[in-house]
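Table S2 (continued). Query chain:
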Amino acid sequence: MIFLRYESFRGYLRAYPVTSVIIALNLVYFIVTAVTGDINDGYHLVQTGAFVSFMPDNPYGLDEPWRLVTSMFMHSSMQHIFFNMFSILVFAPPLEKLLKPVKYAVFYLLCGIIANLLTGAVHGLFGNEQTIYLSTGASGAIYGVFGAFLYIALFRKAWLDPGSRKTVYIILAFGLVYSLITPSVSLLGHVGGGVAGFLLYGLLDRAMTKKRRMY
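Corresponding output:
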């Protein structure tokens, strides 16, 4: 089972530097946001970097593009950050090991950005003037990680043991159901991140396969 973590704290930091930095940034940003205001207050979240789109002035949320990134490191509750950091802690390391740190960092950021872009685009196309869309959290990027493992489970089965493949399917099924029944959860963000991860990893896999054949 590749998702079981046996490393010591120092061993984890050495083996998975990007994942460790991502977790640290999320925790620090959460503390800063909580100390400087109410993490349940939408205005405060916007002031500290949440992704936001609204009609008619900023329908797609692109007026301040830096929010596509900053919102990925923000969380609006203890439960929110706990479950997201647990997911990163447990499930991201095998992907960092597989892709290597730089590719993994770019992959993670792109999945989160694409998830935000998708939700902003849908709001811009179908929202109304009474609707304000606000988003925080690492879920889009995390589902990108899950999407990558779904690709591996389907097309590179030999790379995963049966227990790991089953875990991927269960997590994605549970995540989809949870996203559908929980009003505060961004279904589009989760689906967008998952699809982005699936497709991006597919492109990387083809590129890596082509490179191996050249040598």
